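Bumping with the actual sequence this time:
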Amino acid sequence: MDDKLYYEIPDSLLNHEMLLVSRLAQVPTDYFGFFSAGSKTAEQVITFERKNDKIFIRKQSYNAVAADTLPVNSSVKANNFAPIIAAFPIEAMGENSTTIVIEMTDFFTP
């Protein structure tokens, strides 16, 4: 909308893990590198979290895990805190206040 990118997040997706996969849309003509169009370049698991009037994107990690039933589980959780990779003010609420709208132009554009 007006050269701005907005993202509407249903309340039901807050604090739920989402897998993001980045792929190349196209490569230059005569490119002889290791990547071709459609190649996966990155993947990460994120969550959208609401704190007051802001939405945080947290990057989840599964480099160290432990079953919930093991005593070491609390240590693993404490030492693998999900960092905030972005924060956005809430711009608007959707119909019936069941969605949140944030503006993400700077996040997706150079």
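The tokens above came from a reply further down the thread. The longest strand covers residues 40-51.
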